[in-house]
Design goal:
The strands form two sheets. The protein has a four-stranded antiparallel β-sheet, with no helix packed on it. A two-stranded antiparallel ribbon has the order 5-6. It has helices spanning 9-12, 72-91, 98-127, 131-146, 148-158, 162-168, and strands at 2-5, 19-24, 27-34, 37-43, 51-52, 55-56. The protein has a domain at 73-168. It has 171 residues and is α+β, with helices and mostly antiparallel strands. The protein is built from six helices and six strands. Strand 2 and strand 3 form a beta hairpin. The radius of gyration is 19 Å and the shape is flat. 18% of the residues are buried.
């Protein structure tokens, strides 16, 4: 869930940065400075429902990963796609109430196993300061781009295409 607040968080939280992520025992949240206040994002802790009656959580409202890893938009698009498939089945009368529970099981697993893992890899690559390691990484990327099958596999994984089949296998 995301909301905008005109509250002086910086006066109450020492060393607050303009983009801050915090993890607690009950969940995690983000604070992002904006011109007119703060954008506050809260994600429910693991195990919490992603749906209740007619309210459903998707994207960053359902799980928070660092934007530095570059996977937020991809995972949000896949959340929405998955949710549309399950919701349409329910609306058209071809699915049980459990379909939306299946959505939560599928997306949590994908977020934990794919999104977070790839975000961490991407983040570490972007933060690498050792020149030799960076050159090795760039050489690997060029080699991958030069081989069509490897290039295609990299792009499919980066866009999370395999997660569609992975999610479909979860009931």
């Amino acid at each position: 869930m995301t909301m905008s607040r005109n509250f002086p968080f910086e006066q109450h939280l020492p060393n607050l940065l303009n983009v801050t992520y915090a993890w607690t025992e009950t969940g995690h949240f983000s604070l992002m400075g904006a011109q007119d206040g703060w954008r506050v994002g809260y994600s429910p802790p693991p195990g919490r429902q992603l749906s209740r009656r007619r309210v459903l959580l998707a994207g960053d409202a359902a799980h928070l990963n660092s934007p530095s890893g570059g996977m937020g938009m991809n995972s949000g698009i896949h959340d929405a796609r998955n949710l549309v498939v399950d919701t349409l089945a329910r609306v058209r009368g071809g699915a049980e109430d459990g379909e939306l529970g299946r959505y939560a099981r599928q997306r949590r697993l994908i977020a934990a196993e794919d999104v977070q893992k790839q975000s961490n890899v991407n983040y570490r690559r972007h933060r690498e300061t050792d020149r030799e390691r960076r050159e090795i990484h760039w050489a690997e990327l060029w080699e991958t781009a030069a081989v069509p099958a490897r290039h295609r596999a990299l792009m499919r994984n980066a866009s999370m295409i395999p997660s569609v089949a992975q999610a479909s296998a979860i009931v």
